[in-house]
Specification:
The structure holds two protein chains of two kinds.
Chain A: H1 6-13, H2 29-34, H3 39-63, H4 72-94, H5 96-102, H6 104-107, H7 113-121, H8 128-158, E1 160-161, E2 164-165, H9 190-207
Antiparallel strand pairs in A: 1-2
Helix pairs in contact in A: 1-8, 3-4, 3-7, 3-8, 4-5, 8-9
Chain B: H1 2-14, H2 25-31, H3 35-64, H4 85-107, H5 109-115, H6 118-121, H7 126-137, H8 143-171, H9 183-198, H10 224-237
Classes of the chains: A mainly alpha, B mainly alpha.
């Protein structure tokens, strides 16, 4: 990449694979599991976290030298809460159906440990540009996992992707359904998301054996 | 009374914070390596939920809901401060957790030491904020129900973390494939527990419906008099 130095580019690519916030750092699990029954919801949640984490990281980084250590959690919470209120109001205004699907999980972005985790681990100790890249990188890593889980859950659970039927029509019995394929409704239930993430972790750690716990 | 019992069991088993709505997963996964710390954290979560959900209910009822400010004066009836919910809830939670921390440090230093960093971390535990947000979105009606909801959600979370901690302690001696060791197998086991908890889904569906009354039969009475009048009139016309 011409714009970014090698170290800066690493800030974005690391969380996509080796330092993934969900599967490696074990942050942000709650929303990753709850709303991934639909690919559209996963995408919107990924974009929301991108917005909050990117801007939040920059704001905290700009303030890092003037926040007294004793109240830093409160300051962080206020910054995140304000950004999430903006996201929530925008969603309610422009995508009301989706905001109903996401329900409380938009609000729960506030306590999404990725955001607080990156504030503490990175934004408080680095400059705004690096903090922005780190925020973008981690949010993208989070979004990737959300999209993968959402992809499998929606495809296998309701035969659609983004609401568009791709395997045929289950009622008219066209496409794949004509040979007897049935939607696995179980995929839409919460426990399957946990199992899919477990499988993703399995794949990730098999490919990169340094991540295995002992 | 029946709605209290219903809410209690519903929040523990059917809408379990961990298995049905995935709240508090980060600390659930991080603290569940030993049963002793898991029990301590679970108890702290129950306590914090039991205090913050009713407090936030009061805040929602008298400050945040559309039309809630009516007690100040009738001209305030149109104010809708619900967009401030997030900030107000998280502020209450952070304050209460700070208070709990001070109280625990004073009265039980050993518990304070064993909980360590996790007590302040409860403030950002999504289970706590989630409890308040679900209380708001499900429109819990009374303060008593709010207390009930807080305690029972906490108990549900406590059950979950107790179960996974016990299983993880035992699994250390099992033959788990290397890439799955630790985090991976915890996810899968939690998923299996979630499937188990789905079986509670049929528990409370019997009591909600009102007794259906037998449909009243509509009796059609033929009025004989009219026919005579009609026939009289036709005779006159003729």
């Amino acid at each position: 990449m011409g714009l970014l130095s090698k170290k800066d580019a690493k800030l974005i690519t690391d969380p996509l694979a080796d330092n993934n916030p969900i599967t490696i750092q074990v942050l942000g699990i709650c929303s990753a599991l709850a709303i991934t029954a639909e690919l559209k919801a996963s995408l919107v949640m990924g974009i929301a976290v991108l917005f909050v984490l990117g801007i939040g990281n920059v704001v905290i980084s700009l303030m890092r030298n003037i926040i007294p250590s004793k109240i830093r959690i409160i300051v962080q919470l206020i910054v995140v809460a304000s950004l999430v209120i903006i996201v929530d109001q925008v969603l309610k205004a422009y995508a009301y159906e989706l905001s109903k699907t996401l329900s409380v999980f938009v609000g729960l972005i506030i306590t999404n440990c990725i955001i607080m985790g990156r504030f503490e681990a990175f934004a408080l100790g680095n400059g705004p540009w690096k903090a922005f890249l780190d925020g973008i990188g981690n949010a993208l890593g989070y979004a990737v996992i959300l999209l993968v889980v959402g992809f499998f859950r929606e495809l296998l659970g309701s035969g659609t992707l983004f609401g568009i039927p791709v395997l045929g029509d289950p009622i008219e019995k066209t496409g794949l359904y004509s040979i007897g394929y049935e939607n696995n409704g179980f995929m839409l239930m919460p426990p399957m998301a946990l199992i899919i993430v477990g499988l993703i972790i399995w794949v990730q750690r098999s490919r990169n054996t340094s991540l295995i716990e002992h | 009374m029946i709605e209290h019992i219903e809410l209690f069991f519903k929040s523990i088993f059917i809408d379990n914070m961990v298995f049905a709505v995935f709240l508090g997963m980060c600390s659930y996964l991080a603290v569940s390596k030993k049963v002793a710390t898991a029990v301590g954290l679970g108890a702290a979560v129950i306590f914090v939920l039991a205090i913050t959900v009713p407090l936030n209910w009061l805040l929602d009822q008298y400050l945040l809901q559309p039309g809630a400010l009516v007690w100040l004066g009738p001209e305030f009836a149109e104010y809708d401060l619900s967009f401030l919910s997030f900030i107000m809830f998280i502020a209450t939670i952070a304050t209460m957790v700070q208070l709990v921390e001070i109280v625990v440090e004073k009265f039980s230093p050993s518990l304070y030491n064993s909980l360590g960093i996790f007590l302040p971390l409860i403030a950002v535990n999504c289970a706590i904020l989630g409890g308040s947000l679900f209380m708001q979105s499900r429109e819990i009606e009374t303060l008593g129900l709010a207390v009930n909801y807080g305690i029972s959600s906490g108990i549900g979370w406590f059950l979950a973390i107790l179960a996974i901690a016990s299983i993880r302690e035992k699994i250390r001696y099992s033959n788990v494939p290397a890439p799955l060791r630790g985090l991976g197998i915890t996810f899968i086991v939690t998923g299996l527990m979630g499937i188990g908890f789905l079986s509670f889904g049929g528990m409370l569906t019997g009591g909600d419906e009102e007794v259906k009354e037998a449909p009243k039969e509509v009796v059609v009475e033929t009025i004989e008099i009219e026919k005579e009048e009609v026939s009289n009139q036709t005779q006159i016309v003729n």
